[in-house]
Description:
alpha/beta, 5 helices, 8-stranded mixed β-sheet, homodimer, Rossmann fold
Amino acid sequence: MKLLRDKVMEEGIVLSDQVLKVDSFLNHQMDPVLMKEVGREFTRRFAGEQITKVLTIESSGIAPAIMTALELGVPMIFARKHKSLTLRDNILVEKVYSFTKKETNEITVSKKFLCPEDRVLIIDDFLANGEAAFGLARIVEQIGAKVAGIGIVIEKAFQPGGRLLQEAGYQVESLVRVASLENGTVTFAEEVIS
Amino acid sequence: MKLLRDKVMEEGIVLSDQVLKVDSFLNHQMDPVLMKEVGREFTRRFAGEQITKVLTIESSGIAPAIMTALELGVPMIFARKHKSLTLRDNILVEKVYSFTKKETNEITVSKKFLCPEDRVLIIDDFLANGEAAFGLARIVEQIGAKVAGIGIVIEKAFQPGGRLLQEAGYQVESLVRVASLENGTVTFAEEVIS
């Protein structure tokens, strides 16, 4: 997605070989026009998948997910992140390890918003090791629903998440794929210019 | 806002005299069409205020805020919530007490996304005691920018936040105002049917 790649080039800040900061348009300040285009692009890429729900995780996934849900004409659900839980009635819970924060969180979704007939599109802002996406997929599968696809705004393709998700059989669509952040420079994975 | 009031009547669950659960369309599952209409309504109510930024707080404020920002054609920023912070460089920090969770959080916004010339529209999903809205307003004022208005999706008008914010001189626009949750029933404050 050219618009997004241009934005990464212009405003992305390479903090290290592993960390790309995009807080001017995706993680803290958000560009609503770009988010709308992201929603359109996910809708185009998952056309024909008969999506019934969009699922994301708080907080940075919410804006791209609500725009995608608007475009698809379906509800959006955001999973909540907790340190740990006592109350477990009527909720779906999965553990997700964060490599960035070096901690395990529990993510939760209320059972009443997913049913076995659902075809769920998972949306997230970043894909690195795939922990969050796998956690969301397990939530969907716990209830017997189908993961119809996984849409990622920025994939760090030098980390294994994308490959692992594809090996697990999921259709992963990343709007930009970053091949490397070495030498303080963003290098994109080869892709058709869209 | 009739659409929103209807939704509260149809799907809102009164958990106690103080607590209204709206997790089917605002706090967990979200209705994207409703969020778009919420964005349009805030834009209509704050027309002429020359808004330059929309500011909200994670997580449930993000969807109404991004839709408002899209309609206004300005960037959106979401403040982050933390338990407490050590790193304080280049960020604006305010303490916010949560009556619901009975804890004090620090909310933060990066200094680089606000400037003294900004006219900021604060958006939040709920208004009760006004702690979050006051915290966001102090963030805006710390940098010398102007709070151009405060837009609330659902105000619990039986709690003091709305009155306190207006007494402090802010223009507060709540799309629905709940006067009471007594006897398990939602009663709305009198307002012109829009």
